[in-house]
Design brief:
globular; four-stranded antiparallel β-sheet; 36 helices
Amino acid sequence: MTAEYWRAKIWGLLHDPILKALHNNSGRGKNSFYEQLEVMKPWVETGKTPDQSGGKVLKNILLADYIASASDRSVLGSVTASINYAPGKNPEKGLEITHLLSGAKQEFKIKLHTELIESKRQEYLKKKEEELLAEIDNHLRTDIKNIKHLFWWLWRCLPQATCDLFDKDNSLMLMPAETRLPDASIWSHLSMTSALAGALAGYDLTAEQVQSWQGNDELSHPYLAVFSFSPVQELIKSSRKMRDFWAGSWLLHYLSAKVCWKLANQYGPDTLLYPSLYQQPLIDHWLLQEIERLKREEKLDFDFTEWVKPPSHESLLTAGFPNVISLILPKDKVQAAMQTAQQTLLEAWLEVGDLVLKELQNERHWMRQLKPDHNSWQGWLKSQWQVYWTALPIGKGKQFKTAAIPENVDDQLQTWLNQQNEAYNVSKKQKLFQSQELKFLREAYHQRLEEQHRKFSVNIGSWWAYIFDATRASLASVKNARNWELPTAFGPRSTISGIGPVVNPGNNKEKGKDWMTEGDTKKLWGKHDAGFFDGTEQLNATEVLKRGLHKVLPHLLGIPEKDIAASYPDLTSGVAGYLKVNAGDTRHKLNFEKACQAIVNKYPELETTLTEMRGKWGIPWIDKNQNPKKYHPRLLNADWILEDLPNSTELKEEYRREINNIISDSYPSNNPSDWYVLAAGDGDSMSEWLKGTKLKTYGDYIPSKLSVNLESFPQFLEIQKRMGPSTHSALSRALLDFSNQLVPYLTQNRYAGRLIYGGGDDVLAYTNLWEWDKWLWDIRQCFKGAKDPRDQFSNEGDYWKFKGKSDQLVDRPLFTMGSAATISFGIVIAHHSVPLAIALESLWEAEDAAKKHEYHHSCLIPTEKHGEKACFNKKDAVQVRVIYGNGNTLKSTAKFDVFYQWQQLIQQDLESAIFEQAASLWSQHPAPSQEAIIPWTRLFCDRRDQFQENKDNKKQFQEALADFLKALFITTQTEDLDSEIQNWLKLAAFVKRNRHIKLGGDN
């Protein structure tokens, strides 16, 4: 580490006034308070700062601001027209800000608006920045040894300190970086500028080079690097219990977070473009731990807790980090950083393995003769991960920008443009700059030169989307070229996945032989249950690690064991949804308690088995509330509750019969623990959003009051906006609102579910038979920023803002992906007898099928090479699979808008039989055309006995059925139409039938 590297990054964070959006022209162009920081004095006192010096390396660092702005603002950052907060002619008005994807608009107005407009603006805002400076601990801002921690404070704490200073106004997180194109926040722009400044300075920059650059020194070049590891789904899918499923997801999250934390500590948290580390629970947790450790060692005398609140244990135990990491680095440090990432991944993985093995051997006396370095343990764990990475330069050649914009130097401009277009494989249709934009560039250039006597340039930032896309393509090539495969397992393999050797200590009787026969391992695993294994399963090292993860979490996270509630649900925890939906009828709760107590009375030894589970359903809604937590829903499933008992097979069979008899007395028809529900969702076409191909025109993102007096301005506004680096950074940070705030709230507060993984646009959740459809629709509406079905949130500007007060949510508008975005989901409703591994395999197949769902749109669209082609409406769909105990599967696939119509259909208070009758009639006599649907539904309803006495119900159902059938008719391929209609009607019958729980003693 060098101080100069961190100085460059601090300059990047503070090169603009923090409150720039609130300034008018008199204060907007200045800097923040970096010149007043003692650690920056070596630059400031010698005049060697990027914005003052003409020194070679400092000019290189100054490029960071231009590159970060280029695509995000295009030429708009250089026009002479301006947009002010609370303009003189309309001081009551704030700023019009736009959603960075959809372009939806809303007004940004601070709590202290009146105080601001009644003061001398420049003096008022300058004083506020001085107050922010005073918030920084004196040791932090003066001692050069603390420069890295100073940077962390500025990056992580300054945004919150700013909000707090303005009467705890968290909406200041939305302050735009550019009021003329207000779609990305100042915080995202500053973070991106900082990352680029560090990469342009170089990690090993010296003080001597800053003061006097030597001619033979080479300037640093920024690179975009991507690091990834696999396998992912395979690790998660090889699960027998929900504990395994949760552990697989959390381990991937933890390992990725460990890599990010290591790289952030070395190169700065701003360098991580995706995932954004801002307000990430694990990163905040480790940051606070690090500061506390340094305080104990008397190396620091300050803390961050005033601005960084300790994350909840619930958030720490919810996975969210992806297995792909994007970051900006100096060229000279790319390879070292990638090696660090790989080493960190392996070390963290082996550390978890070591902790689990010690827990099993020392605390549970499991397989104590197994040595940690045995091939079936450490040998397998070392082979678990395949790592691959790639990196591309940000800008081809050494020239990052050019001011050769006038027509008389067009040949210079075209040479430079061609070099960049060719380097990143930009197609002819998309190459920069198209004639409309180039014309506007030149007009704006001349206007600025004439009015302000200043030129401006174009730079490599305009190619950001193409650089990012080329890097992703390069990573895909590296991944496809790899020849890695899991090593061959000699001897018995895992009974869960069929992959990898069963963990065993080797056969010590025969020297030199470290493997065992199938009979040997069966005997060995039959003895070593340790309270973790049922005596019949045999696992590989990875699966054992997952099974024991929850026991080592206190050590991994530094949290007392008593503070870690159940981090995962049980396969029977869907009972929470049943109790929640029926909370108004106390008979359901009393019947549940009565059934559980009867089982415990019959078999008191079950008390010991349930000790660890008591009060821990793994469902936050019920774990946090005063509900029937004395008992666990596992009691309603004889197979699961008996698994951990050490009894013989014969005795367990006797127990099973008796327990099932007790359950049948309490629940004579449907058992509320019979079915478990899993959901997997993924944002559609995210790569296209990142490339900017789905963005709208510049005209959709500018404020309505912006007026530019240039002839070519209207034509420029018709050009599609590009995705720039700061907008990209803003998207990465904003996605955390959806995954870390909104999805957990909807899943775990509004409904009785558990979020297993919520990262960016990905959702993996456990829900229940009674609420899955409402939860699914709410998540979809939230993703799009559409109207909240419960009306708890407003959705102005495609942001969701909670209308009341919530301990779980930040008090500001929360980002959604916007009205133009879509998400697709797979849902699996599985019988309790269906192995979890099979349900998970089917879950991802369902998600994939939903993404592939399409229908002909009855129109033609132009293509680049082949004239026209049929237009198909793709994705934005859900596939629901019901997996029965006999292995049969019911599959129903539809667009989300059709799903909504189906949802309205099952809201009716009707018996399941009517849906079965409709499916049967359609199979025999389907409506021949869309026009025949209404007559068909009328005829069907006329012949139903249940409607003869209630004409209103008949009309309501007939209309809902007709709406659903018409919607499905329009959006389904002809060859699939009849089967889909029947399947959705059968699904409706299934849901209605199984949601009805008859209580013991009811007639």
